[in-house]
Write a structure and sequence with these properties.
By secondary structure, the protein is mainly beta. The chain is built from 1 helix and 25 strands. Strands 1, 13, 14, 17, 18, 19, 22 and 23 form an 8-stranded antiparallel beta sheet that branches. It starts with 5 loop residues before the first strand and ends in an 8-residue tail after the last helix.
Length: 303
């Protein structure tokens, strides 16, 4: 077994999206090979309703999948194919935009006015970019959860982990999407297939993500010539950790425990042409998508 090294630790950056939604972006609109097959990750946590209520009005997607995971509040969604619904706390929407879809997402706070959720964009390979759009709406009750003897708790949104398989299926990048809580002071190792690119996103507490040569985190203990070495390089709230190759990730929770998303997927390794929410392989395909939007032919008729 080989521990994945921590290639980079960086804080999510505040930004505005949609009609003025205040959120934090962990990555997006940079080198797409960095976390291939994933393109963008946003944390839209907020407890000021005027900072998120205007939402994300009608906009197009083509060539990607969008994954929305709601922790607090709700998100009402509707699209140009006639789909509509509400995502509640703990639920997930996995939308395969494929050949093209227009949709809107309108967040609403919980009883305390709080909103918290994440959106991840996954790329589609060239062979599936023009596939028919597809929705998978998963309620929180349908997401399997496992609690280990030491109190470690894992929600499995997609992929197979500790003998349980998440409810989302048929995704191009064969991803694993886990919501993990590790209690205070517990050190835990999680397997990840070696062929996947992987990252963690910390959104509660602090902890240490370690590798054999350069541990990073809070109070990570490591034996060096028989002596304990304590590392105090904190990975905390709204922090992205990007991992190198290997087949497991180790974390030691800080004094208040740590909760994070652990996400991995098979790289697509294809050219990327990117224009906002439209991601294709060539600039000619981007130009065609923009022409389709102007001509009213962006949405392909159902067969």
């Amino acid at each position: 077994m080989s521990l994945r090294p921590t290639l980079e630790t960086r804080p999510a950056q505040p930004t505005l999206e949609g009609a003025g939604v205040h959120l934090h972006r962990a990555f997006g609109f940079q080198d797409p090979s960095e976390l291939d097959p994933f393109l963008l990750f946003d944390d839209f946590r907020n407890d000021v309703p005027e900072h998120f209520e205007k939402g994300f009005p009608w906009h197009p997607h083509r060539g990607i999948e969008t994954i929305t995971y709601v922790l607090e509040g709700t998100v009402e969604h509707s699209d140009s194919l006639g789909n509509a619904g509400t995502l509640g706390a703990g639920s997930v929407q996995w939308m395969t935009a494929g050949s093209g879809i227009l949709h809107q997402e309108m967040p609403h706070g919980n009883a305390k006015g709080q909103m918290h959720g994440f959106q991840l964009w996954g790329n589609l390979p060239a062979a599936q970019k023009m596939t028919a759009p597809r929705y998978q709406d998963i309620t929180g009750a349908d997401i399997p959860e496992i609690t280990d003897d030491d109190g470690t708790h894992v929600r499995i949104i997609t992929g197979t982990f500790w003998g349980q398989t998440g409810p989302v299926d048929g995704i191009a990048a064969d991803p694993q999407y886990l919501d993990i809580y590790v209690p205070p002071g517990i050190k835990k190792t999680f397997p990840i297939d070696t062929y996947r690119r992987a990252f963690a996103y910390v959104f509660q507490g602090t902890g240490a993500f370690a590798d054999a040569s350069a541990p990073s985190g809070v109070l990570l203990e490591k034996e060096v010539a028989g002596q304990e070495v304590h590392i105090r390089d904190m990975s905390g709230d709204r922090t992205l950790i990007r991992f190198g190759s290997g087949d497991e990730v180790t974390v030691q929770a800080g004094p208040s425990g740590i909760r994070f998303l652990l996400i991995s997927g098979a790289p697509i390794d294809e050219p990327v042409a990117w224009h906002g929410p439209i991601v294709m392989n060539t600039h000619q395909e981007i130009e065609q998508a923009m022409q389709d939007l102007r001509n009213g032919t962006f949405i392909k008729p159902a067969h």
